[in-house]
Amino acid sequence: SFINADFNIFRYHVAVMCLENIMERVIVSMQDPDMGMKMRNQRLLITVIPHAMTGRDIVDWLIQKYTITEEEALHIGNFLVKYGYIYPLKEPRNLCLKQDETPYRFQTPYYWTSTRWPASELDYAIYLAKKNIRKQGELIEYEKECYNALHKRINHTWDFVVMQAREQLRASKQRRKADRIVLECQEQAYWLINRPPPGVMDILEQGPDRRNVANTRVQLVSGQMLAIFVKYCEQYQDHDPIMQGCLPSNPWITDDIMYWNMNSETVTMPTKLRVERWSFSFMELLNDPLGRKELLTYLEKEFSAENLCFWQACEEVRHGEASKIAAKVDEVYKQFLAPGASRWVNIDSKTMEKTLEGIKHPHRFVLDDAQMHIYFLMKKDSYPRYLKSELYKNLLAKAIVPQETKKSVFPFMRRQRHSSPSPALVTQTAEDNGKAKPSAAKANAGTASQI
Amino acid sequence: NFCVIFITFEGFLSRAGEANFPLAKMAAQEVQPSETIAKLKSESEALKTKLEEERAKLHDVELHQVAEKVDPLGQFVMKTRRTLKGHGNKVLCMDWCKDKRRIVSSSQDGKVIVWDAFTTNKEHAVTMPCTWVMACAYAPSGCAVACGGLDNKCSVYPLSLDKNENLAAKKKSVAMHTNYLSACSFTNSDMQILTSSGDGTCALWDVESGQLLQSFHGHAADVLCLDLAPSETGNTFVSGGCDKKANVWDMRSGQCIQSFETHESDINSVRYYPSGDAFASGSDDATCRLYDLRADREVAIYSKESIIFGASSVDFSLSGRLLFGGYNDYTINVWDVLKGTRVSILFGHENRVSTLRVSPDGTAFCSGSWDHTLRVRE
Fold first, then answer.
1. Which residues contact A344 (CB under 8 A, 6 or more apart)?
2. Across-strand partners of B111?
3. Labelling A322: which of A77, A181, A328, B129 has CA 20 to 30 A away?
């Protein structure tokens, strides 16, 4: 069928042009008189085809030009053939690159995918008619189907189709055999791409249509500004499992989930790397629920725990349901901001005044200023002192450095991949615990349902 | 520059009598005897050198220069550890659950599947009433997923463990755009969703009520991707679109506070560097780029002449040293973010890579492809 997919996919649109421009650049440099490919005559049975190259030549040229591996060169070369910029002279229906003496040729720009002259039904009908007339039984199954479908659909112009086909065949008979073979191959390659047989991937499919547009301010940046990236990467390198591995082992490699168990939210003793990471930034400490718990313990000793609780309550206003904002803001006011409140937070008078005024008409961001004030207070004051405290230092000293577990060498000793309770289950159980027993029992029955 | 005239049907007819010799009709915008081209080439080289000299005088640098003294990376061996098969059509999007092992994925045929990627078990499946589900996201609590696509909506499905329960029954329609949904993300809680759309806008929604909290206008064409900033104040996000722009937005005011336009084609993917000081982008122009937010400009380009196809999806490793890019030529290229060089190329998928995310604890990354599968690699 010529109709592709279940809605209007326009095959040619601007984003595709970018790919084709880039591909054409490659093709043009392949044909560069000095640095391009060395083309020669290729023998096809008894005919000599000029300006051809072998598959091996193509791969070698790509390897040399782009300094890439053979695998990558073959990968790219295949695309050049699949997109119709190079076509095979032998086995012309098989649009792929073979890394041997198989001969190939560059497709003429007239037939380039980017040329975009509409590959109409009429053109295709003429092409198929030519094939059919030239040699009976030349059309393969799906081509026969297309031919018959076209014959029905554009029956009113069929005389013209046949006339055109005959005319083109007559003209081509006047050519030298080599030229004729080349022209037939070129045309065939073109149609294989524009009317791919069933089962062959349609390279022109692009996904949903997009609207595009057709292009800078120059700013200066110093080395100092960019040094922060180097610093960050270095600091986190040991914490990056893909870069450095992780202890005891990466669960995806060894199938052992020890690493996840040891780093879960509810461990009694965290790992050393984890505790170290809290010292990288205040955000790291806050983002780790265990770290936050430790900070709370420390702040309680300092009688400033209300700061962290206030910050958390503000987060809940900012990220909670819209309908609950007014109620939550009221709670925050009662607990933290009202004169004589049980957990009164110490905000500067200007911010306090602005906030108290704002909460008369509560909205999602009404506590932002106050929250930010308390956040930076904790960051500049409590956080550095926490890192120097006995509480932190003791934890760091006691923190675990796991032993490495290696991947099992024997396949039959492969570890079982254990399921884990779905996060949805955990919440459901918590909800159900408030309700009658039976539903809790159901929720606890084994792992999550299979599909 | 050449331009090719479209051969019209009439033109084809008029040549019907001639031999069908394919003449390439090239109408050149400029004269191109080879000497002129050579001259222009050398002129442009001279200008380039001059520009670099001027920039150097002002100590203007790029990231790879600053990183010259950093140790180069060794060889990386990254194997596929899990292959998730079950989608009947192209995988378009995926997201990780905070539990570091579950993922949600969506595909062209309307299916959204939740997997325990570690065991490869499928845990939930939803069939959307539309095709091309281009966006999906896992809620921070792990109790719901959001998805949407050609239906122009973003819907939230709470995940139920009752085998008999039809997930579709509890579906909540949250976002409504006037064109396809291209991306969605929960903010810090299950209660708010950020969306981007083919209608050229982004929007922030309250999940419970479906209320539009804020909309973001400024892109001149379809918006294709977004990412939330991991900053302390948690108030900004970046979006990329078909107008080749990447915009940074203030979530509170709806204003575009920064804009970057150096790509030469659609921006398919944007992702913040872990510190929040920069973000990377992947584009149909076959490059990925890094933009520094404080310097307010591009500071690195990740490209190679042999990379011809667009980058569809990008993400950083935990330390930000590696940038993984999924490309339309079915491969994944791994870049050294600091030095700008390619560290590795990964084969395996049999069609374009459409989506790629590193897991929350950085132990692995998952790629989804038009070949119907997802792969988890380390």
1. A306, A336, A337, A338
2. B127
3. B129
Is it the case that residue A219 has pLDDT exceeding 80?
A: no
Tell me whether residue B363 is exposed, middle or buried, using C-beta atoms within 10 angstroms of its C-beta: 0 to 12, 13 to 18, 19 or more.
buried
Scored b (16 or more CB within 10 A) or e, A109-134 reads bbbbbbbebebebbbbbbbbbbbbee
**Placement of tokens 């929250």 in the chain:** A371
Tell whether A2 is within 8 A of chain B (Cβ): no
Tokens linked to A182:
């080349």
Contact B163 A449 (CB under 8 A): yes
**What is the spatial distance between Cα A161 and Cα A234, in angstroms, rounded to a whole number?**
69
- Chain A residue with the nearest C-alpha to that of B338: A230
Spatial separation of the C-alpha atoms in residues A357 and A354, rounded to whole Å: 5
pLDDT > 80? residue B97: yes
CA distance B29 to chain A (A): 16
Residue A431 confidence (pLDDT): 53
What is the DSSP code (8-state) at residue A109?
G
Locate the DSSP E strands across A364-426: none
Calpha distance B71→B69 (Å, rounded): 6
Q: How far is CA A337 from CA A71, A306, A367, in A?
A: 66, 11, 11
pLDDT at A356: 93
Tokens, residue A145: 């189907």
pLDDT digits (tens, 9 = 90+) for B245-264: 999 999 999 999 999 999 99
Q: B267, B312 in Cβ contact below 8 A? A: no
Cα B173 to Cα A178: distance, rounded to the nearest angstrom: 64
Instruction: With CA atoms as reference, report the closest residue to A207 among B92, B284, B221, B350.
Output: B92
Q: How far is CA A6 from CA A81, A184, A202, B150, B188, in A?
A: 28, 34, 15, 11, 36
Is some CB atom of chain B closer than 8 A to the CB atom of A198? Answer: no
**List of chain A residues whose C-beta atoms are within 8 Å of the C-beta of residue B252:** 365, 368
For strands A40-44 and B121-127, give the pairing.
unpaired
* CB–CB contact A66 B209 (8 Å): no
Instruction: List, for residues A344-373, the tens digit of each pLDDT value.
Output: 999 999 999 999 999 999 999 999 999 999
Residues B120 and B167 sit within 8 Å (Cβ to Cβ) = no
Write down the residue that tokens 């390897």 correspond to: A63
Q: Which of B233, B354, B248 is nearest to A319 (CA)?
A: B233
Q: Are A88 and A186 in contact (CB under 8 A)?
A: no
How many angstroms away from the CA of B97 is the closest CA of chain A?
Answer: 9
Q: How far is A381 from chain B (nearest CA, A)?
A: 16
Mutate to test the interface with B, among A63, A185, A229, A416 (most CBs of B within 10 A): A229
Residue-wise DSSP of A127-178: HHHHHHHHSTT-S-HHHHHHHHHHHHHTGGGHHHHHHHHHHHHHHHHTS-HH
Q: Which residues contact A286 (CB under 8 A, 6 or more apart)?
A: A292, A295
Question: What pLDDT shows up at residue A198?
Answer: 85
Helix (H) or strand (E) run with residue A284 in it: helix A282-287
Which letter does DSSP use for residue A341 in this model?
-
Q: A159, A242, A417: which to substitute to probe chain B, counting the most B Cβ within 10 Å?
A: A242
Counts for chain B of helices (H) and strands (E), in that order = 3, 30
- The rounded percent of chain A whose pLDDT value lies above 90 is 51
**B114: Cβ–Cβ under 8 A, 6 or more apart, which residues?**
B102, B103, B104, B122, B123, B124, B125, B145, B159
Q: What is the mean pLDDT of residues B184-188?
A: 94
Three-state SS for B101? Answer: coil
Return the half-sphere exposure (C-beta side, CA atoms, 13 A cut-off) of residue A55. 20
Three-class secondary structure of residue A54 per DSSP:
strand
Regarding an ipTM greater than 0.90, the answer is no
| Share in percent of chain B as helix, strand, coil (round to 5) | 10, 45, 45
